[in-house]
Design a protein that fits this description.
Strand order of the largest sheet: 5-4-3-8-7-6
InterPro entries: GAF-like_dom_sf (IPR029016), HTH_MetabolicPath_Reg (IPR050707), Tscrpt_reg_IclR_C (IPR014757), Tscrpt_reg_IclR_N (IPR005471), WH-like_DNA-bd_sf (IPR036388), WH_DNA-bd_sf (IPR036390)
Oligomer: single chain
Order of helices and strands: HHHEEHEEEHHHEEEH
Largest sheet: 6 strands, antiparallel
Pfam families: HTH_IclR, IclR_C
Shape: elongated
Strand content: 15-25%
Protein name: IclR family transcriptional regulator
Keywords: DNA-binding, Transcription, Transcription regulation
Distance between the termini: 39 Å
């Protein structure tokens, strides 16, 4: 890396965390200062900041161990990796049972970010590749994750002065009021539908994936062309909800 882009304070914090992780509950400020050759004044500031962030915790003997926030972040990273792996395992079975493709996505602000996909052998290939983004309000995946937010959160995310929202098809919602009404229904039924709101000729069902605290962390969906949707709609909804349940903590 070009030295001009380096941030020395972050590098020192990394060294501190690494040292504490190797000797949990055994090192004091003076020990870390000597081992890492960082003067006591700088070490004090670094440790105080790390402690305030919850990255380290000071024990009664003035020694340090890694904090709960690092544990939470590590769990989230592991869960993301593990979620992808579990999705491919379980969705491959859902794909065989229904004969349709399944997607995994997360909410990123006002957009849906597609993470993974299990694609069935169908005449028309879905364009929802991992890394692709679409407006959340116009997709079943997005709506089912937005439904976990409060109305105040929705107002903050979708200011009324930014109406109408971008629409992907003539069926896409374009107002906060329409979105809120849709989210109320989704909260009651536990899943979301996209009836040609993202792509003309395709409909979709999505269900939320929840962590151990009940918070929505991602969602899964199944999309298909209208002729197949008319035949498989109920089976699609049931399979998507079953898959989401299997992927939830």
């Amino acid at each position: 890396m070009d030295d001009k882009y380096r941030v020395p304070a972050i590098e020192r914090a990394h060294l501190i965390l690494k040292e504490i992780s190797q000797h949990p509950g055994k090192l004091k400020l003076i020990d870390l200062s000597r081992t890492l050759t960082i003067n006591k004044s700088s070490m004090y500031s670094l440790l105080l900041t790390l402690e305030n962030l919850g990255w380290v915790e000071k024990e009664t003997g003035e020694t340090y161990r890694l904090g709960r926030e690092l544990s939470r972040l590590g769990h989230a990273a592991f869960q993301r990796s593990n979620l992808n792996e579990t999705f491919h395992k379980e969705a491959s079975l859902s794909k065989l049972r229904l004969g349709e493709s399944f997607q995994l996505a997360k909410l990123d602000g006002r957009e849906v970010l597609y993470i993974a996909k299990e694609e069935a052998l169908t005449p028309v290939r879905l364009a929802s590749e991992p890394g692709m983004r679409l407006p959340a309000h116009a997709t079943a995946l997005g709506k089912v994750m937005l439904a976990d937010l409060s109305n105040d959160d929705i107002d903050a995310l979708y200011p009324a002065d930014q109406e109408p929202f971008p629409h992907l098809t003539v069926n896409s919602m374009t107002t906060v009021q329409a979105l809120k009404l849709s989210l109320e229904q989704i909260r009651e039924q536990g899943y979301a539908l996209d009836l040609e709101e993202a792509v003309i000729g395709f409909s979709c069902a999505a269900a939320p994936i929840r962590n151990a605290q009940g918070q929505v962390i991602a969602a899964v969906s199944c999309s298909m062309m209208l002729p197949q949707w008319e035949q498989k709609k109920q089976s699609c909804i049931e399979e998507v909800c079953k898959l989401a349940h299997q992927l939830s903590d």
